Amino acid sequence: MAATLFLLLFGNASANYNTIRGRRTNLPENTFANNRNKHLLNDELSCILLLKEIKFSDGSESEEADCLDPVTGEITKITGPYDAQKIFLEGFKTGELTSNKSTLTKNGGAQAYFDDDAGELVLPDWEQLEIGRGNPKRAELTNLKASSTSMRLSTQALAALFLLPSDSVSANNTLRGRRRLPGNAIGKTKNKHPLDESPCILLLKEIKFLDGSESEEADCLEPSTGAISKITGPQGTQKIFLDGFKNGELMSNVSTLRKNGAQAYFDDDSGELVLPDWDHLVIGHGNPNANKNGRELWKHVARSDDETRMVGDGSRRSLATVIGDKEMLAIRVIAPDASMSSSESDISDSWFGTSGDLVNLKSQYEACSYGQLRCEGASKTTSTGATVSNGVHTIEISSTVSGVADGTVRTAVVNEATTALGSLSGQFDHVILCLPPGTAGSWIAYAYVNHWLSVYNDEWCNYVSGQMHEIGHNLNLAHSGEGTLAYGDQTGMMGYSYSSDDGPEMCFNAPKNWQLGWYNDGQKVVTSGWSGNLYGIADYGTIDSGSVVIAQIPASVNGGTDDWYVSFNRKAGINAGTVEGGNQVLVHKRASGTGYAESTLMAKLSAGGTYSGAPLPIEVSAIDISQSPGFATVLIGTLATPAPVTPAPVTPAPVTPAPVTPAPVTSAPVTP
Predict the structure, then answer these.
(1) How far apart are CA 257 and CA 122, in angstroms?
(2) At what angle do helices 361-368 and 464-474 cross, to 10 degrees?
(3) pTM
């Protein structure tokens, strides 16, 4: 929404800052070492409270509570626990705070700081806040020792000032290991509870948007409630966790997070897990040695190898299986203001081919795996006695969806479905949510990595490439990129997705296929030199055992960090719809190993093409698709040249002439 901004600074802009008691201070090392873009709000530096009034082009208005740093002249938005903005705005509204006159200082409790990059003043908690030039109106505040310039707000006084229930606060409650929020965190609220010694399970969320772009999000699953919350906190929090997943230091749906220091809490209203600081974070089942370049996470958190409390029964989750039978359930959602556009039968057909759809998730995964992964729509009676048929069940929710965040709708659907059907993850291998149209944003689908849940925006629930892609994330597959685009590799299903019900008909690229292990007897590790024919996965069922489908150049060849892959992208059969690099030899790379990692398409080679960017040179001698199976003849590395053979000198054997017997001579008759 376009906005015209009117900033009203109530009061005299040249006010005497006689309550400002210090100068800019650097952050201490125990929070953000060597970060020049943050500085403290403490007992040596107050800021001046401002009320910001905003008018939008549609005639609507909003307000914002800000604070002016008099040293720099910068105005920053106040952020903090729970309803920080609402509380300060109420203070202005009731006359207890005066814009451009009242001041704010923090001289105790967890650290508060100005974040210059984000333009925010971050208040981790409410302890030891001091309001200067405030006007407490209520009788409950008359016992405060307030002066004309400064008024310290205790926990009890702050609660009274901002109309919080007086029985909800306790000055001595430290929130260590309790499920209800104490008074020092703004009183009792039913929609917030702390993250303490009971860990949540870290999840990586992959989101796809309508314009083809994608993004990632680090979330945490609370086992006791089943709620999935986005992790928020000090600047860079999301990036640090996302880098941890990327570097292999964290594993989605395996690694855990707990906090046993300063307060961290789940905000059920916003769907967030809020980390006020980095103190005393503990990672369970992390791997700080996974990547030599990935160390940022471990500057902030502790590793706990014995942390195993990952789910309610104490068992540890493992990586998703990629062979065998998968029982799946798609949930069609109806809300008061919108319904998922397709019927149950249409959804079932698009996923499982129950009404004759020729290309669907079931058919394509079974084809690409040559029958090793079989996806079946659930048909059974659930633990609650409800009946599901053909892999689809309709759930009605009581809340509207128009303009509502998809995460809020997702939570409502999961809660309602759990009530109606019982435990979802306990009864189904994969659960698909088909949401109605109209939720906020331009997202089209997302899934949690190495997990059982994927979510689709209306008709995108029916598109096979979106289905393959998101379930691929559930199976621990990362994106396939090309150039600067993390999803630009269109040779397989982990790149872009397409708005088509029956295509494109293709499988996955070589790094993903190596990770999946569906063609193990067609894998070849090359460490020096090899020459031979490469066959496409489309012909895997007809080639002789031991024929090569994927050649890998391991990272150990040059001491690098990436494995390289060479394959022939045969454009036929189950891979006839490959969008890019059809009937060419492809060169990919990815971080060494077979865990979650993005792959990158590095080269597409035709006959006569060469590539020298890999640890070993690659040359395509010929490509023959005139016969079946088609193949590409490839040379990787340099073949050893046999040493020339010098023949040993040969001494001829002595020759003894054979005895010669003279032929008898017969005289010719003489005629007289």
Answers:
(1) 23
(2) 60
(3) 0.68
| DSSP assignments along 584-617, one per residue | SEEEEEEESSSSS--EEEEEEE-TT-EE-SSSS-
| Contact predicate 49/104, CB 8 Å | yes
Q: What is the DSSP string of 497-529?
A: --S-SS-------HHHHHHHTTTGGGEEE-SSE
Q: What is the CA radius of gyration of the chain?
A: 35
Taking CA atoms, 669 is separated from 531, 666, 672, in Å, by 80, 9, 10
Burial status of residue 585 (CB atoms within 10 A of its CB: 0-12, 13-18, 19 or more): buried
What is the pLDDT confidence band of residue 118, given thresholds at 50, 70 and 90?
Answer: confident
Q: Which amino acid is at 134?
A: G
- Please check whether residue 278 is in contact with residue 234, taking contact to mean a CB–CB distance below 8 angstroms: yes
Compute the mean pLDDT over every residue in the chain, rounded to the nearest whole number: 80
- How confident is the model over 220-270, as pLDDT tens digits? 999 888 899 999 988 889 999 999 898 888 899 999 998 766 678 898 888
The CA distances from residue 570 to 579, 622, 633, in Å, are 12, 14, 13
CA distances to 84, 101, 272, 516 from 193, in Å: 17, 35, 11, 40
pLDDT in tens, 533-553: 999 999 999 999 999 999 999
Cα separation, 510 vs 549, whole angstroms? 9
Are the C-beta atoms of 450 and 251 separated by less than 8 Å? Answer: yes
